[in-house]
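For reproducibility, we list the full input for the flavin mononucleotide complex.
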Amino acid sequence: MTDRGVEAEPLLSLRTWIDRVAELGELGHVAGAHWDLELGAIAELSYRRPRPKALLFDEIAGYPRGMRVLTGSTGSARRLGHTLRLGDELDDEALVAALRGKPSQWAARAADFPVLEVADAPLLRNTVEGPDVDLTAFPVPRWHGLDGGRFIGTGCFVVTSDPESGAVNGGCYRMQVQNDGRTATINAVPGKHGAQNIARWFEREGRAPVTVSFGHDPVLLVTGGTEVPAGISELEYAGAIVGERVPVLRGQATGLPIPAGSEFALEGWLRPELACDEGPFGEWTGYYSASRRPVPALEISRVHFRDDCIQLGAPPGKPPHDYSYMRTAMKSAMIQDELVSSGLQGIKAAWAHEAGGGRLFVVVSLAQRYAGHARQVAHLTAHGPAAAYMNRYVVVVDDDIDPTNLDEVVWAMSTRTDPAQDIDVIARTWGSKLDPMLAEGAPPHNSRAVIDACRPFERLAGFPKVSQSDPTYLRSVADKWRDALS
Ligand SMILES: Cc1cc2nc3c(=O)[nH]c(=O)nc-3n(C[C@H](O)[C@H](O)[C@H](O)COP(=O)(O)O)c2cc1C
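The corresponding predicted structure, in tokenized form, follows.
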């Protein structure tokens, strides 16, 4: 173990983020919870409350005071607004409005924020080398009752690279502690950019270099955990969000960047021959992912960590879960952006419902301009990069329907569709092994339905009028009859 001088807080320090969130009154403290299920259960109870705080767990049973775990980081408009540098006082509606157009702006500006290499960081205060590594020295939670083990990677930021171009990718993938803490598996779903990088390294060199940060400003959880377009580094995208170049250390064993603001990070090589049985794990679909199966594990070169390091936890589960609010807000903004930037007109709003984990059930509202417009929007939504993975239903509604309001959406589906002609089913689309509907051993396809719940274009003028009073008239009646209606 080496001992280095502690520096000032670097950019994307989780401590700076926590201090601000505490000032906003959005941080709760829990002392004495057990890492084995109790911590996860407290977090789960918290997500189900109306305005959940972020929770900072300390004095975790069996671990020294100061080794902490944070959950619920992005679960409110104020915390997500702060994380995305959109403002500290936003409510749900203002956050959605502020997010409009931002993902494509961040993507366009990312290249202006190349990472900034630094030589030192508080993270280097403690270093453990390969044979001495023991990940169980950290209070890694077992989050859900049927999980196959302790998952250290939930809010993590995993850096991989393209072996040909060297382009760097940051992604968030679940990581299970294996072999009594000597290693961990990384479970990136095929098709994800990180998984593609790893597969190419395996083909070329039989192993793949990675670095992983386990505690950082949650902006890295958002960028790593969201479908940032291919070819854009999530570290640069995060730079565009915060308006500064992200400082990084260069990993000595892999040459890959490690965010200098990290609390706790490792570097090493993923090796297929070290594969360990992984899972099950309680997932964002609301179900445990299927049975245990072998997943490549790390040959860990080094672990670096700050004194009293803080892990960023983000356990999924039946929604609402740790990051379902974030996923809905980000996905909705990205899908809308993608549709608008494809040149489509009349797009009013998109909403990727939290009940569908921000992926399975997407609604788009549209001012129809021509015959076929609604169907075009529906199909593009279902296959655009922002929604393609694990989508199941896309519903397109007219612009008098609020796509965030499920009652209005169900009303439109119930009264403006002829199922025989308004539901298209597309087979063999991009599914996942996480899908509870996928039969054991079947390839990870799903099918999806796009539902055109807009009034038929050719009948727009003559379609029965909605039986609700004129809003101006209603307002005047409400004024006149205020006492009777109170
Ligand atoms: C907390 C959290 C956990 C996630 N776990 C996984 C996972 O285990 N495997 C996976 O492939 N994607 C997982 N995702 C989704 C990916 O992070 C997301 O699809 C991301 O865009 C992948 O990046 P990439 O396409 O650059 O590889 C998770 C996301 C979050 C926020």
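The first strand starts at residue 27 and ends at 31. The pocket of flavin mononucleotide is lined by residues 154-155, 169, 171-174, 187-189, 192-194, 224-227, 314, 323 (CB under 6 Å). Both points were considered when choosing residues for closer inspection.
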